[in-house]
């Protein structure tokens, strides 16, 4: 078993790249989509099924696990991998997103953030040092620096303030990182929708030296064009030998366009959340199984899917489960969606290796137009 964290780009097609991240707990094929297991569970899924669908790594969250059941308790029970029965790589978000999403329940200062728990109202303190300590207690394979994420749009002055604070917290996170063999720490590029701020953040993080670099604070309310512009402006500065992670993204179209621009890693709640709300992702676009048009339709959701549920359960049955509020409907649609996302990543890796990534993207978008989403992936 390797004790080294390393990244290798194995194939390129223009700016798109396919590669392999090696960790002590297993290899991660890139481009990679990480199913979100915020509270140590990918909702409505058995861990074994998440793995069988093609996931090499999942994401868990420092803030939520800090509140319940507590990092110290998880450590006493053998660490997060053993706790959630997922022996493969785990990336942990540091809690920076909650600085934005729970803005009404927190107070921010130079040293860190005090949160009022959304569960019981108790006060909890997160600093860069505590965020690193929690991620070490959890035993995560890839830890994230503690940062401040801002919602877009926001004034340039506010984006700059948060970006500079995130850089100071990045230095403190790096200093506090345990640095165990084979474990990695990623820096997070901030700067809102301002190109100069994004470049300034990127350069400063590179000078500090991280194992990988993430783009944070995107897919938080801005149009896709702005997100892609931010990727384009920082890509020339990002080291080619380090993984690039676009946090919290996104739709299938977001994934295609970000990979086209050299991004390697993604996470998003979209496929699991959509599954719990009656939406299926397929090669022919999104299907809303709540719609009455599916009530008498015996056809499968996606006959080309790698997922047996997409091939063997009828749209009529899934419509019935969704309309009846049956848990099985949520489980099946979540599995179908995660399979679609993993199939998409595998197809992108294959297209990059074959030197036909642009052609693959064009074909995927044409296929989406054939479904009821009418071009919306």
Protein architecture, described:
The chain has 377 residues and is α/β, with parallel strands linked by helices. It has 2 domains: 237 residues, TIM Barrel (Alpha-Beta Barrel); 95 residues, no CATH class. It is built from 15 helices and 16 strands. Helix 7 runs parallel beside helix 8, helix 10 packs antiparallel against helix 15 and helix 13 packs across helix 14. The longest helix is centred in the C-terminal third of the chain and has 27 residues. The two termini are 39 Å apart.
Bin the helical content: 40-55%
- Residue-averaged pLDDT, rounded? 95
Here the CATH topology of the largest domain equals: TIM Barrel
Contiguous helical run count:
15
Strand content: 15-25%
Overall domain count? 2
Biggest sheet strand order reads 4-14-13-12-11-10-6-5
**CATH level-4 homologous superfamily of the largest domain:** Queuine tRNA-ribosyltransferase-like
Supply the helix-strand structural class: alpha/beta
Distance between the termini: 39 Å
Radius of gyration: 20 Å
- Report the uncertain regions: none
Task: Give the biggest beta sheet.
Answer: 8 strands, parallel
**Main CATH class of the largest domain:** Alpha Beta
Name the overall outline.
Answer: globular
Total strands: 16
CATH architecture of the largest domain: Alpha-Beta Barrel
């Amino acid at each position: 078993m390797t004790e080294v964290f390393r990244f290798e780009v194995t194939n390129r097609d223009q700016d798109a790249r396919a590669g392999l991240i090696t960790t002590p707990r297993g290899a991660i094929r890139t481009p990679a989509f990480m199913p979100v297991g915020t509270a140590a569970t990918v909702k409505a899924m058995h861990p074994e099924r998440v793995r069988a669908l093609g996931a090499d790594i999942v994401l868990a969250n420092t803030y939520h696990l800090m509140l319940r059941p507590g990092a110290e308790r998880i450590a006493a029970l053998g660490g997060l991998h053993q706790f959630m029965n997922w022996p493969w790589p785990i990336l942990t978000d540091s809690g920076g997103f909650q600085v934005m999403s729970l803005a009404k329940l927190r107070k921010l200062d130079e040293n860190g953030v005090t949160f009022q728990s959304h569960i019981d109202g108790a006060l909890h303190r997160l600093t860069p040092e505590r965020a690193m300590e929690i991620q070490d207690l959890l035993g995560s394979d890839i830890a994230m620096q503690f940062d401040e994420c801002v919602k877009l749009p926001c004034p340039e002055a506010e984006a700059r303030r948060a970006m500079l604070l995130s850089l100071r917290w990045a230095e403190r996170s790096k200093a506090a990182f345990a640095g165990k063999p084979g474990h990695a720490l990623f820096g997070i590029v901030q700067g809102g929708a301002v190109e100069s701020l994004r470049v300034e953040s990127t350069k400063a993080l590179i000078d500090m030296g991280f194992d990988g670099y993430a783009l944070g604070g995107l897919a938080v309310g801005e149009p896709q064009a702005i997100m892609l512009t931010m990727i384009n402006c920082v890509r020339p500065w990002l080291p080619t030998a380090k993984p690039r992670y676009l946090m919290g993204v996104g739709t299938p179209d977001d994934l295609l366009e970000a990979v086209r621009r050299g991004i390697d890693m993604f996470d998003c709640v979209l496929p699991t959340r959509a599954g719990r709300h009656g939406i299926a992702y397929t090669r022919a676009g999104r299907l809303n199984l709540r719609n009455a048009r599916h009530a008498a339709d015996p056809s499968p959701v996606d006959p080309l899917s790698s997922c047996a549920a997409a091939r063997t359960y009828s749209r009529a049955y899934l419509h019935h489960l969704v309309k009846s509020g049956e848990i099985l409907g949520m489980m099946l649609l979540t599995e179908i969606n995660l399979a679609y996302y993993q199939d998409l990543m595998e197809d992108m890796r294959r297209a990059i290796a074959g030197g036909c990534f642009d052609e693959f993207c064009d074909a995927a978008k044409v296929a989406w137009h054939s479904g009821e989403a009418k071009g919306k992936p």
